[in-house]
Structure prediction request, 294 residues.
Amino acid sequence: MAFVHYRVLLKLLSPLHVGKKKYSNLMTTREYVPGRTLWGALVARITRDYFSAQVSMYKKIGDYLRQKFRFGYFWPSLDGESPYFPWEHEDFNFLLKSGYMGQPIDYDKKATQEGMLHEVEFISPRTKDGRPVYLIGDLWIEKGALKNSKEEKITIKISSVEVPLGEVFNKIQLGGEKGYGWGRVKLERLEIEEKRTIAGADYREEKGEIILKFSKNSRIASHALAAGGESLNPVPEGSLTGSIEVLTGYGYYRKGKNGLEVGLAAPLICYSPESTVNRDEELKLGEFGILEGP
Prediction:
């Protein structure tokens, strides 16, 4: 198995909210787009546009992308060339984050619903000083899945259907509040990258896997598995220093009375992005971009 590594640049067209934590009436956002979020957006768009939104195809396409794609996390960029990491820029929150306050309406009483005031934090499509905001990230695609690997017209083939990836990226919505038009993006570049990841890590392929090489005192730009799950390997003990969080999300399916139903993935205990690497380390790029032990 061999992969083609692409660097993807998306222009943010509307507010982006990827849920992180809730404090009282404030719903905070993550500073990045996790691999699982990108995977889910691609699955939804491909199934709706190329397979008539057939319920059975959601799982099939989801499994296909998990097998044939390797996802990096996407981070804001101001210059369209490099990520604007919050650990490198103290003004990250000031420049990029804003909030929207709202309250549901009780139409029978012709008034807002009492006690339902909430605020949603988001990454703005423009900085406080008016600059456009982009999202930049890494994507690996197995060569066997590519009908056309040329940058100007990358096409993948799923069940004999040819899917132009550029068109899909232009139609996806990322994160929450999609009903309000949030999370819209425009593809700016989808180019082959044969060197490093956006976080500056070297990589190599080994037995069908992507292995990332981190130098001592560098930062990871995605989650890393701290405790093992089913068939998953945690990163070596003592390899990282950082905060720990429980990570889960929708996307797995089970049989229900009405056929296939969405289910929750088993929770994973992970190091958070921006954790520090304590020594030179090689880690495997696992499912949805979560780093694992080699």
Q: What stands out?
A: Helices lie at 35-50, 55-68, 92-96, 165-169. The CA atoms of residues 60 and 251 lie 12 Å apart. The chain has two domains: 3-198, 215-286. Residues 3-198 form a domain with the Alpha-Beta Plaits fold (CATH 3.30.70).
